[in-house]
Amino acid sequence: MIVSLLVVASGAAPRGALALKEILLEPYVKKQVEFFALSFVIFLFFAGFDYHKLREWTWILYLLMIAALVGLFFMGTIARVHRWYRIPLIGMSFQPSEYAKLVVVLALSWFLERRKERAGEFSTALIALVIVGIPFLLILKQPDLGSAMVLYPIVLVMFYFGGVHPFLVKAMTWLGALLLAVVALFFLEVVPHEEFRPMATKVLKDYQYERLKPNQHHQKASQTAIALGGVTGTGWRQSEFTGGGWLPAPYTDSVFAAFGEEFGAVGLLFILALYWALLYFSFQVTSVAKDSFGQLLAAGISVYIAMHVLVNMGMMCGFLPITGVPLLLITYGGSSILSTMIALGILQSIYSRRFMF
Fold it and tell me: What range defines the domain where residue 345 resides?
């Protein structure tokens, strides 16, 4: 969170010799501090809440999530997409897809625990696919390719832990590998982007297909910012490339690259170490959970964290298309922060009750 405030303050506050107090009073910085303060309260609530009681709320939350995703299509677009609700009284926006990923994890955990004795049956696999498929298609329709892309491996890992029919797990694994291979062929320029367009646009929209184009401005700008940072970086608020406005979305999608220019490879390794520690302890919770519901919840949340980190960093390094996946707890924005702290609160609840039966 401190890293987040450094990046937001650097990107949002005007350049010049400003006092630290003036920088922290900038609207974006103040808003991010408010998000963090609220998220700590929510984290403590879920950490103290018995996660077993979430079973009782599973389908209420699932139906509310579906209603929220459907309702987006009756609202006006923001930035040409249906992703956010505006909440005028408090000046915030609400992005249902960020919470939908957690609700899907919860719903699958509940369902796979209930079907534990029949997990290997095709009927279990079919119902599980329906539970996942409805929100997946609604998120894809917004369109929000990034959230849909993150949801896929989460579900795959939960199917594996839940003992879903091996054929489905293998099929999803091979499909995921195939899609990654296709993306790699585009980014390595083995497959000519323009020659494949007529076939690809039968499935994808033009602007979605454009994201598979190698060496786009956003990706080149991100790689340039990271390269300019060198080993130790240019210093906080001393970046010329990011500070000059050449890096798109420096405190949202591109926080990794923006931080890299100012703090260099040393700073990026520090971020990687923080995420490694967070993921290590998250997967430790999965291993010590005393019931299948807790284990499935912890596994889903751990992969949720891992995929956001991998996809965002992959985008900034030019390995994956730019899809707007946030870097958890660093990217500016309330929905991502609040949903992440809910997830971490549930993990804490599972861990603290590991000796309770």
Answer: 2-164+215-352
**CB of 311 closer than 8 Å to CB of 323:** yes
Distance of CA 321 to the CA centre of its chain: 14
What are the beta bridge partners of residue 81? Answer: 78
Q: Which residues of 201-239 are buried (b: 16+ CB within 10 A; e: fewer)?
A: eeeeeeebbebbeeeeebbebbbbbbebbeeebbeebeb
pLDDT digits (tens, 9 = 90+) for 295-322: 999 999 999 999 999 999 988 988 888 8
Domain total of the chain: 1
326: phi > 0 → left, psi -120 to 50 → alpha, else beta; which? beta
Task: Please state, in angstroms and rounded to a whole number, the distance separating the CA atoms of residues 243 and 254.
Answer: 13
Overall pTM surpassing 0.85 (yes/no): yes
Rounded Cα–Cα distance for residues 129 and 317 (Å):
32
Confidence at 80, pLDDT banded by 50, 70, 90: low
CB of 336 closer than 8 Å to CB of 328:
yes
Q: Is residue 184 part of a domain?
A: no
- DSSP per-residue string spanning 188-255: TTSS-HHHHHHHHTTTS-HHHHHTTSTT-HHHHHHHHHHHHHTTT-S-TT--STTTTT-SSSTTTTTH
For 22-34, b/e burial (b = at least 16 CB within 10 A) is ebeebeebebbee
- Please, are residues 253 and 324 in contact by the beta-carbon 8 Å criterion? yes
Residue pointed to by tokens 């609400």: 94
User: Is the residue at 45 inside a domain?
Assistant: yes
| 245-288 confidence digits (pLDDT tens) | 898 888 888 999 999 999 999 999 999 999 999 999 999 999 99
> Is residue 18 domain-resident?
yes
